[in-house]
UniProtKB/TrEMBL annotation:
Entry keyword annotation includes Membrane: no
Keywords, alphabetical: Transferase
Name assigned to this protein: Glycosyltransferase family 2 protein
Lineage: Bacteria, Bacillati, Actinomycetota, Actinomycetes, Micromonosporales
Domain Glycosyltransferase 2-like: 5-105
Organism of origin: Micromonospora zingiberis
GO MF term set: transferase activity
Length: 320
């Protein structure tokens, strides 16, 4: 009986081969590997890996990552837990073995657990940097939006709970489905909603278990789309703490509007901040970085991570 069903959404990127290989290479854990192609039919890049994959399913095409993850959860093997892995990321060999005891201990205590971890980071096609991030882990009882968005660290080492680190139970994955309407911030949204389930607990182990890729071709997190981020954020206005909401708006949507040089967007985001709370100094500084070209910021971030021993990215806060 497999211990973990692994769900990998893909459109057939070449990097899928590494993701599949690292899922198969997990030590001390049996996996049931489900690859979900967001296409009408199985692409060549997936067909070539059939002997390593337990199930291959297709969405019909153009349904996006949340739909693919939900479909993958439906195909989870009986009696397993569920882990998510993006097709441009990879796992370290002890990833699941390190997280499973934590998950099973919490589930045995009656919690609905989600277990994350630190990561190593790399540019697409590059070698992982040696130091694990984020610097600060989520504290017990902290809401994910407060951890992720309030007083965010500048540049390297900032708070993150990447999709490819997430391990949970089938029960949690089926109780809290990924929002299929969202083109962006799918992982953040899922975590925010999971945390509101009765007896939910999100924890993060100290060791790095995954390799997180920055700047993959076609990544939806690479563009300065303030409108999509704002459409998602405003559903949480009045739900999140005002300080958290304003910090998100400053560091995310206002920064994007500045990057896009969109005056209408800048004015709307300033009004949203005024309705809530002044942003923290850190998040105000992140907003100001919207005036700097993104490519320059990523170069500085990756160079800085080598210098200070930290490798967090500027990839839209880690949300795809």
């Amino acid at each position: 009986m497999p211990d973990v069903s692994v769900v990998i959404p893909t459109t057939g990127r070449p990097s899928l081969a590494e993701a599949v290989a690292t899922a198969r290479a997990q030590r001390g854990v049996s996996v049931h590997l489900v690859v979900v192609c967001d296409l009408a039919e199985v692409p060549t890049a997936v067909a070539e890996l059939r002997d390593q994959i337990d199930e291959i399913v297709c969405t019909g095409g153009g349904r996006r990552g949340s739909y693919a993850r939900n479909l993958g959860v439906q195909h989870a093997a009986a009696g397993t837990h569920v882990a998510f892995l993006d097709d441009d990321d990879a796992w370290l060999p002890g990833k699941l073995a390190a997280q499973l005891p934590v998950l099973e201990r919490l589930a045995g205590q009656g919690w609905l657990p989600v277990v994350s971890s630190r990561t190593l980071q790399r540019k697409a096609g590059g070698t992982p940097l040696p130091s694990a991030v984020p610097t600060t882990l989520i504290a017990d009882g902290t809401l994910p939006e407060d951890y992720l968005f309030r007083r965010r660290q500048l540049g390297v080492g900032r708070q993150s709970l990447p999709t490819s680190t997430l391990l949970t139970t089938v029960d949690v994955a089926r109780q809290c489905r990924w929002d299929e309407s969202l083109p962006r911030h799918q992982d953040w949204d899922w975590l925010v909603r999971v945390a509101r389930l009765p007896r939910a607990k999100i924890v993060q182990i100290e060791e790095a278990t995954a390799i997180y890729t920055v700047g993959s071709p076609g990544s939806i997190s690479a563009g300065a789309d303030w409108r999509t981020s704002w459409d998602w954020a405003r559903r949480w206005e009045g739900v999140w703490a005002p300080e958290t909401f304003s910090d998100f708006i400053a560091a995310q949507t206002l920064r994007y509007a500045l990057q896009a040089r969109d005056r209408e967007g800048v004015r709307e985001m300033v009004r949203a901040i005024r309705r809530n709370s002044p942003p923290s100094a850190r998040n105000a500084a992140l907003a100001a970085l919207g005036l700097v070209p993104r490519s320059a910021l990523e170069r500085v971030a990756m160079r800085g991570s080598r210098t200070v021993g930290d490798s967090d990215s500027l990839r839209a806060g880690g949300s795809r």
